[in-house]
């Protein structure tokens, strides 16, 4: 290949790279919003067979996604209320919050619930229903009992409007009546032994997952909290909301990217300088890798529309593998000495690079088969980055590396030769068989101790302070949504409400047994028309004999005008769901109604409250038509478990796919020795994880896929390169060790990531790559001498 052709190819490649860089910059910074996705829910796969269940899970998760919940807590009630007022005023001054609610506008609770009076004869609690259905029911006793009940301080009905107390009993069972938060001095306040807690809520003006919104909102909140604690000594501000989790996740990911990227970059730079003794190979190796990462980022954002936190950190670690292709070409140049020819050098390394690229792509392609958006994006990112980094070696480096280079340092080559010779001697003949048997015996106890844990919560590790504050806020206020809910579907809203009522009977039994704290559902607030008609039928006998009822009420002390008004109100009107959804009382619960989103039907959500087991909740929905328990976390965990069980088969399939390729390239007799290092590296890695009592997850097995691909690369590099460096034994293994060291400096650092999933990934790669690099000399057919 002529020098002119080399430069033409290089210029064309650089123009394409420039276009990629411009596209990448525009995607990241030119669209007015960051494509970095900090919503952890978005990284999770779809788990429900029912599409509406997935819609409901997303809807429920984001129902309060842009809302911030704060509690001003102080032992002194006045201080807590004053702090809450000031906190609301401070937050309302900044436009990052679309609305802030601390003080409530003055209103009359009686007026808020007065509309229920026209439906009073249709609304009965289960206890009143059962009492009215009894043959010996005595209305006069119920009347006397209600007249003598203690004075109601909360939401109460007037005695003359509800003499038997049926509506009062029904109102007392509504969610707004059971809330620990009560309006005091126009503030929602809860009292506990350790003091008063006053609620302040705020709604962001944008998405909680937007970087700019996060930074502004947190700055305002931190400044306001500092001011509150200064002005009102003893006050604590508790906080929860998606904003805080998203900001923490983003911050952790940024620190991981900076740490992994900085340490791996510095470490790789130092290694390349020590081995090649020139800054030029260092700069070209990083250029090749940077082009691959830019291309990977651009394609990932184009394909997925966003880039996940896992992918960002993983991309920083990709540096150590992408640089391998450059290292092999640079090594070929260093070993050629004065006989260096860039075209000939390219032809020398091309088979090894293509074979190595193929094995790596195989591992990442299998990773992309998992229906997990984050893993698929990581696979896409890696595959594009690997391909482009390899193409840069083919199209760019030959033009930039025309002149000969210094040979590899004598220390690196000599050290690699000593290690290679020692390992070759250990694995040769009977000594190798004995050592192999001993290694398997040592590994066996570790394999026997392997166990698995598929809990999706291992994917993330939110700060304990945030988790503790959220739990305390839930305990104090009762606010907050669970990841578990029931999806109730029917042909129309009436059927949905009837099915909810059947479910609620079972949930009530669980509540009575102490298995559940309660639930929130629409049927408890708006009974089905069938239930309302049945309620009226139970009350009807009292109004069928109006004269007798009039006499009872008159004897109890009611005025005739009030009695006549009550009798004339019978039978009232039924309460319709659509009309109720438009009332102020329905505002906090509208998200429970899914409307007609289901094809040809309707649906609603029922939220169980408490810590009931998934099994108990499943039993509550058993054999109820149209009722499905949706547990996003459990569903993802089950999916992880299923694919984790498949992973060993995928790994075996990957090995079987490599076998014919290596058999064709190196011969069937030599194929086992070339494949042995990565396979044994995987086996020893699993043994160490067993000894460490490390619960295996899907991420461990996905990392083992990459160990197979990367380990096979090292065997290929050594096998393909040694015939070209017979004049300098050890030089090829030195380049393999250099590649392994760069991978360990990048992928291995993931073991110290703040994300548990990446910790599993990094630890597995750290062990697997380390074992494989040490075992690679076993793949060479001939003995190595120290001469």
UniProtKB/TrEMBL annotation:
<feature type="transmembrane region" description="Helical">
    <location>
        <begin position="6"/>
        <end position="29"/>
    </location>
</feature>
<keyword id="KW-0812">Transmembrane</keyword>
<feature type="transmembrane region" description="Helical">
    <location>
        <begin position="761"/>
        <end position="781"/>
    </location>
</feature>
<keyword id="KW-1003">Cell membrane</keyword>
<feature type="transmembrane region" description="Helical">
    <location>
        <begin position="352"/>
        <end position="372"/>
    </location>
</feature>
<protein>
    <submittedName>
        <fullName>Membrane protein</fullName>
    </submittedName>
</protein>
<keyword id="KW-1133">Transmembrane helix</keyword>
<feature type="transmembrane region" description="Helical">
    <location>
        <begin position="379"/>
        <end position="401"/>
    </location>
</feature>
<feature type="domain" description="Membrane transport protein MMPL">
    <location>
        <begin position="192"/>
        <end position="402"/>
    </location>
</feature>
<feature type="transmembrane region" description="Helical">
    <location>
        <begin position="698"/>
        <end position="718"/>
    </location>
</feature>
<dbReference type="InterPro" id="IPR004869">
    <property type="entry name" value="MMPL_dom"/>
</dbReference>
<feature type="transmembrane region" description="Helical">
    <location>
        <begin position="647"/>
        <end position="667"/>
    </location>
</feature>
<feature type="transmembrane region" description="Helical">
    <location>
        <begin position="282"/>
        <end position="305"/>
    </location>
</feature>
<feature type="transmembrane region" description="Helical">
    <location>
        <begin position="260"/>
        <end position="276"/>
    </location>
</feature>
<feature type="transmembrane region" description="Helical">
    <location>
        <begin position="674"/>
        <end position="692"/>
    </location>
</feature>
<keyword id="KW-0472">Membrane</keyword>
<dbReference type="InterPro" id="IPR050545">
    <property type="entry name" value="Mycobact_MmpL"/>
</dbReference>
<feature type="transmembrane region" description="Helical">
    <location>
        <begin position="730"/>
        <end position="755"/>
    </location>
</feature>
<dbReference type="Pfam" id="PF03176">
    <property type="entry name" value="MMPL"/>
</dbReference>
<feature type="transmembrane region" description="Helical">
    <location>
        <begin position="312"/>
        <end position="332"/>
    </location>
</feature>
